[in-house]
Amino acid sequence: MARRSTCHAPTRAFNRIAYSAAHVVADPLRAGELNAAPAIDWERTVEGTRDIPDAAIASSVGTDHVTAASVSSCDQVIRAYAEQLEAVQRMGGRVILMASRALARVARLAPRKTIGASTVKCWPCAISR
Questions:
Q1: CB-hemisphere CA count at 13 Å for 50?
Q2: Each residue's pLDDT tens digit, 26-83
Q3: Residue 26 in 3-state DSSP?
Q4: What is the pTM of this model?
Q5: First and final CA of the chain: distance in angstroms?
Q6: Residue 113 burial (CB < 10 Å; 0-12/13-18/19+)?
Q7: Distance CA 44, CA 30 (A)
Q8: Cα–Cα nearest to 74, from 108, 117, 114
Q9: How far apart are CA 57 and CA 60, in angstroms?
């Protein structure tokens, strides 16, 4: 006997935006090794989005420009996020906040601190930001 679907129509408007890369332009003058990061011509990539009606530029902000091992405090992680955040905002882009291996490492290594009834790690991030 066939099973009936229990899916229902949503009761409220969808509140997410789906992003898609319209195109990314490779930089042929900076071709690298196959196992290296791709050489992207960011200027031409951004130019191309101007031809797409209602296109919005969004960029990920994270800590991928630092190694997790080089970061030893929440303040260093915050500075790493801020560096990328400022660059994206300066160009007028929307921000997509990414997870961070550096933050995960610092939080895992940080001492625990009790704040009220809660015990948190990496407490400067939790209470002062």
A1: 6
A2: 887 776 677 777 777 878 877 776 677 777 778 888 888 888 888 888 888 889 999 9
A3: strand
A4: 0.55
A5: 56
A6: middle
A7: 14
A8: 108
A9: 10
